[in-house]
Amino acid sequence: MSKRTSQSIEDEIVALRREIREHDYRYYVLSAPIVADVEYDAMMRRLKDLEAERPDLITPDSPTQRVAGEPAEGFEEYRHKRPMMSLDNSYSIADLREWAQRCDKLSGGRAFDYVAELKIDGLSISMIYERGVLARGVTRGDGVRGELVTANVRTIRSAPLHIDESIDEAARYEIEVRGEVYLSRDVFERINRERIEQELPAFANPRNAAAGAMRQLDARITAERQLDVFCYQLLFDGAPGLATHDESLVWMMRAGFRVNPHHRRCATIDEVIEYCNEWERRRDELNYEIDGVVVKVNQTAVQEELGATAKSPRWAIAYKFPARQASTRLLDVIYQVGRTGAVTPVAVLDPVVLAGTTVARASLHNADEMLRLGVKKGDWVFIEKSGEIIPQVVTVITERRTGEETGFEFPSDCPECGTNLVRPEGEAVTRCPNPDCPAKVREGLLHFAQRRAMRIEGLGEALAVQLTAPRKQETGSLPALVRDAADLYHLAERRDELIALERMGEKSADNLLRQIEESKSAGLARLLYGLGIRHVGERTAAILADHYQSLDRLSGASVEDLAGIYEIGEVVAASVAGWFGEERNQNLIARLRRSGVEMNAVRTGEAVSRVFEGKQFVLTGTLPTMKRDEAKGFIEARGGRVTGTVSKKTDFVVAGDEAGSKLTRAQELGIAILDEAQLLAFGKEA
After folding, report:
1. Does a structural domain hold residue 608?
2. Domain count along the chain
3. Which helix (H) or strand (E) holds 655?
4. How far from the centroid of its chain's Cα atoms is residue 41's Cα?
5. Does 145 score more than 60 pLDDT?
6. pTM of the predicted model as reported, rounded to 2 decimal places
């Protein structure tokens, strides 16, 4: 290799890193990207290729190093230069006023004002930079000592790996930036949907999910959680270096750190109180959870004058919003069996109103969680609802026990078929291993028929029960009409028996048979999702279908081949390969194929333009002709992404009848609003 060629590679690597950092800053910090995802991905691929050619040029702050290396064996301890203290909490406006009066009294007559910031419901992290490069990421720990989680912090795309060279202080000081790591509502709800599909316990709230991610020894798992961070404190060599907190926030923004945009400088405590009241009303507009407001004295000199107690700074306080919980009686626990055999305990509650809806059931997740909570029949419990997920039992109110409560014992046999339950090593979930368990067959059938899978909408829960149950007759019982998904495609041959089912009739039977026939052309992605392969959610099914294009090619793929696909990890790869390796499943596929079910990726006669590439959409209200899933599919087929919450990252809101707060929020942010006709016209542009 010539010297000139070597130098040109080095120059291109430097230029690519600078360009990628700029795009990361615009996307993850400013929420204002200027290139499409496909262009960004091309730059990242080019950088990886060049670094593979010249591994001697790889540096810790390269964008390619956000996820790298093998799992750690444990976390090292690290002592904070300046303690990461917790804040005193206040729960009323009167508490806030008392705090302000104490600050005024202890300040020695110095003039000061305040900065109010949203209190993000996450976990604190310290990011330490040496010569402008991220050197350490440290958890809060006990406030004096934390744990080094540098590899995990590198996975947070809004956390800079490198401070801009134009920032003078970057080379002169050890710079420490503290922030709150959190999970957005969109990501949290997606993760929980995927976990529920895989019959894994849902996370109770975004904070738990974020905290669990930061404690992972394998940074690749952390990266999958898509954590984010808002920064709130700046230290130079372990001490405040600027005159006011407000100036520190500005410095961090200028240096490329993500600071919450809703912070406000307040001249008086009355303005602080107005800010608190405003955000208690507006908290649902955000794409992340907040549980209050943090109020700080703005002037650094006054902060030093006020000092701290043994646990908390006197110059800051947290105003906590009322908790979104409700208390009620736990009447019983029932045990539900899912399509993978997972047995989930569900609390039956005395109905209570929570977050505007009446709640009569709440998840207890698994046997370990029941044991941890120590729930008993008749207990008073606190329940909590976060996102779109089933409410959770979070605490037992032991003080309200009367002594008449009775304990629960997790079953050892399947409540549906009586088979001995098993708990695989390393799993928290107890499962029924019987492949013919009526509950597994029924739930699997419902999953196969759902709208996001094969879209057989006439097959609801009541009908699924009848189709999968043995039919009683005077002379005995007949086998169930349906024992697996392939049997659905033979129901036309048994139309008379179908019509004879309760509340069926000829018209309903014919509608169902028509939908079953139409489902044959659903395509590979929907079929894969409908088959219910463990760890294969809707997104994973689409990735596999796009990569392999046919079920034959996919079924022959090795674990190594599967794990090499972007976004498909080793766990998913092993699950997919294992599923196709079972004779029972191969027989199912053969029967589906003989019935005429499409086993290839859906192809249209005309290539679809990727006109929505890199654009983010939110759907709200009822569209005139398109169902929500159809609109989502239309957008995604053209390169767009559909999310559930309106934010500055949203490019378009598609609004139908009875559009609510999402439409209002879009109007406030000046986001383009489309109706169905405009969406269709836009999507057909070449």
Report:
1. no
2. 6
3. strand 652-655
4. 22
5. yes
6. 0.57
Residue type, 113: D
> What's the rounded Cα separation, in Å, for the pair 300 and 244?
5
Same domain, 153 and 279: yes
Q: 86 near 311, Cβ under 8 Å? A: yes
Range of the domain at 460: 438-519
Torsion sign across C-alpha atoms 144, 149, 155, 161: positive
Residues 543, 461 contacting (CB under 8 angstroms): no
pLDDT digits (tens, 9 = 90+) for 95-126: 999 999 999 999 888 899 999 999 998 899 99
Q: Based on the domain organization, do 588 and 670 belong to the same domain?
A: no
Say whether both 56 and 96 belong to one domain. no
Q: Is residue 428 part of a domain?
A: no
Both 61 and 86 in one domain: the answer is: no
Q: What is the pLDDT of residue 265?
A: 96
CATH code where residue 346 lies: 2.40.50.140
Q: What is the mean pLDDT of residues 607-617?
A: 76
Residue 433 inside a domain? The answer is no
Average pLDDT over residues 454-467: 91
Residues 333-342: tens digit of each pLDDT? 999 998 889 9
Inside any domain, residue 189: yes
Band of pLDDT at residue 608, cut at 50, 70 and 90:
low
Are 115 and 242 in a shared domain?
A: yes
526-550: burial string, b at 16+ Cβ within 10 Å, e else: bbbbbbbbbbbbbebbbbbbebbee
Find all residues with CB under 8 Å of 210, minimum gap 6, and list them. 122, 123, 181, 182, 183, 225, 227
Catalytic residue set: 119
Q: How far apart are CA 579 and CA 583, in angstroms?
A: 9
Give pLDDT, residue 137: 94
Report the distance separating Cα 109 and Cα 111, nearest Å. 6
Report the alpha-carbon distance of residue 256 to residue 167 in Å, rounded.
10
Q: Provide the token pair at 636.
A: 């995604």
User: Which of 364-378, 401-415, 444-458, 647-661 has the least mean pLDDT?
Assistant: 647-661
Residues 210 and 341 in one domain: no
> How does DSSP classify residue 402?
-
pLDDT digits (tens, 9 = 90+) for 21-34: 888 777 666 656 67
Q: Do 230 and 135 share a structural domain?
A: yes
Residues 258 and 361 in one domain: no
